[in-house]
Amino acid sequence: MPQLIRRNFPLLVISILLFASCTPQPVSVAKPTNAPSPTVLPVTHAPEIRFALIGEPRDENVWKLFDKSGASYADYALRSEYWPRLYHLAPPEFNFEPLAANGMPSPVTPEGEFYSATVKLRTDLKWTDGTSFTANDVAFTVNSALAFELGYDWNAYYSRDYLESVEVIDTSTVKFIFKQQPNVSVWQYGALQGPIVQKAYWEPRINEAAGLLPDAALRAQVDEARTYFAKAQSTVKNLTAQVTLLRLNGQSDRKLEGNLTGARGELTFAQNSLNKLLEGYTTKIESAREALYVVDNKDEPTLGTWIPAERKGNDWVNEANPDFPFIKPNFDRAVYSFYSNAQDAETALKENQVDAILRPDDNTPPESNSLELMSSPNGNLRFLIFNPANSALADSTLRQALACIIWLPTRPLSMSVSGFVLAGDDSWRNSDAATPCADITDQNMDLRLARAVQLLKSAGYTWNTEPTKDTRGSGLNTPDARSFPAIKVLSLGEDGNSLEALEAKMIAEQADNLGIPLTVEQVNPEDIRYEVLSSKKYDMAILGWSLSLYPGYLCQWFGGQGQFYYGSDRLKSECEALEVDSDLDSARQHVFEIQSILAKDLPFIPLYAGVTYDAYRNIHYPFESVSGGLVGLYGSPSYAMP
After folding, report:
1. Are 338 and 55 within 8 A, CB to CB?
2. Quick one: how far is CA 80 from the chain centroid?
């Protein structure tokens, strides 16, 4: 029962990468190099599966483990399946499925000033101490995470911006109460997949830490101060707009300007009052958290596929939970050996001391004919972005022509992509919304050029010298008979010799063949961030992003409030609807429509996606590829087979 904690390790926020590469469409993958003979009967069960990890695990309690200060890949690999979840994304397709829940959640509906939804729980689940898993455990976990204002994975699952509390309806039913309408990211891909701990064990142990939290009176004062500040801020904003409008019309109003001066003073007072209260409030929260993180977790009851067992020398061992009613592992135990460096771990794999290496920071496969190899999309995308404010690039037909002509040879650790939703779950992907010329799968540059020329000609573009397979185009003219201006693409690689720099030059040459005067400027990561995200003084740029399984990032980029909003009212409308849609099927329809809009408008061109390689021996898996690779599933010991 992989819990997919990788969605937050490292925390998957949208960020520009130095070496970009997003969860792409699974395409052809490497076949195992050591496939078993068909004449040999497969082994269906074995005593143990052995993993190599880099570094040394820390014995953190669950509260610290899933917060920033306690997070580490080694600890997640070892412990992520100790605690139950209501739902999970089942590999390899990552379908949303119940675990501790009994069926799907109810619809989210308004309830007074809040929104709410209920979840029915299974009644056959037992903690390792023999007691039943109940609604009290769910409510206690979520409400504790909210009260202590826990961050990182805790807040990614149980968002304080959305969740008000969780109530117990009966022993097998919980009600989630939201401050505002949640969407699929907050609900199905958030709160419903968070870890759950046992109330009976933890409640008495964290009472002392809970006593350090801000009391109700201080919380009420902070809420009142925030309300006062927001009101003062709104007043200043409205008065400023009125005074500015008068001045633009050459008029003035002394009384109005005096009111604005007074409102600004009140805003300053409100800000200072709020800051003073928050200082004491934050101190109490931090003290309570630190006390929570050090609570002893000895003999904590768990409820997962695997349960902690005794250490064997330097090895840490998990045993299969015999009472777990879901997937039954094909191994009695999972053994984790820790190495100080990657070289020692690779040696252990080659010498058959371990069955697989779990190493998230290195995708290079070890060289050995005795190992099986799985290649999988790794969640990173590299793409070409257009400045929406550049009038020369505003024509979508021009961008479609560029998408046709651009072709990069498959580079190491990458695969080509043609769509816009590149998650592991195909149910989010609109296969009819592909980039132009996606049907040209090989390096047929003559066909690509011909298709691009036809696109431009149909839109009214002309050339002084029309490009052909034997002639470079020149003198491109816009449909209104103006010369197409010189444009520039920003790319990483200041020395000019990096792979990124060479690829940027290749794109420029292909555009030049089409008659588009494109040059390359190599810059450092800080400069490209500033130009693209701050100054906006660029034409095109090659960027890299790390993406989540939920495709809401398309709206974070191109929706009305996105970094790259290009003025599409249709896309803005779909994104606004997606932002408040908590129904999976309805949300998918919005995402499908978003992809259709992007395929037509093409505000960015996907270039290629990264690939991760997993090498292993003595084991095999019921899938040939999985988004994020085996390392993203912490080796997937629940699905591995001897």
Report:
1. yes
2. 18
CA separation for the pair 356, 388 (Å, rounded): 46
Decide if 245 is inside a domain. yes
Q: Looking at 293, 314, 341, which one is the last position of a domain? A: 293
Please state the φ and ψ torsions of residue 210, each to the nearest 5 degrees. Answer: -65, -30
What is the Cα–Cα distance from 76 to 99, expressed in whole angstroms?
A: 19
Tokens encoding 33: 């190099």
Supply 619's token pair: 């084991």
Residue 145 · residue 289 · CB < 8 Å: no
Report how far Cα 582 is from the mean position of its chain's Cα atoms: 18
Quote the domain boundaries for residue 260: 216-293
- Regarding whether 526 and 633 lie in a shared domain, the answer is yes
Are the C-beta atoms of 63 and 147 separated by less than 8 Å? no
CA proximity to 52, closest of 315, 274, 236: 315
Q: How many CB atoms lie within 10 A of CB 384?
A: 21
Q: Both tokens of residue 600?
A: 């037509």
* Alpha-carbon gap, residue 381 to 19, rounded angstroms: 10
Pair 304, 88: CB distance under 8 Å: no
By C-alpha distance, which of 19, 12, 3 is closest to 412?
Answer: 19
Using CA atoms, how far apart are residues 158 and 189, in angstroms rounded to an integer?
Answer: 10
CATH of the domain at 375: 3.10.105
Same domain, 372 and 276: no
Query: How many domains does the chain contain in total?
Result: 2
List the one residue out of 612, 67, 48, 66 whose CA is nearest residue 359: 612
Q: Is residue 458 part of a domain?
A: yes
Question: 3-class secondary structure for 194-245?
Answer: CCCCCHHHHHHHCHHHHCCCCCHHHHHHHHHHHHHHHHHHHHHHHHHHHHHH
Tens-place pLDDT, residues 414-459: 777 777 876 566 789 898 898 888 888 777 899 999 999 999 999 9
In the structure encoding, which two tokens stand for residue 584, read together?
A: 């999976």
| Tokens 């046709």 belong to residue | 404
- Output b/e per residue, 157-186; b: 16+ Cβ within 10 A: bbbeebbbebbbeeebbbbbbbeebbbbbb
Closest CA to 85 of 192, 207, 219, 189: 192
Query: How many other C-beta atoms are found inside a 10 Å radius of the C-beta of residue 288?
Result: 21
pLDDT for 292-335, tens place per residue? 999 999 999 999 999 999 888 889 999 999 998 888 899 999 99
Q: Is the peptide bond before 622 cis (omega within 30 degrees of 0)?
A: no
Residue closest to 444 by CA, chosen among 456, 455, 452? 452
> Domain for residue 394, yes or no?
yes
Contact present, 475 and 484 (Cβ < 8 Å): no
Structural domain includes residue 139: no
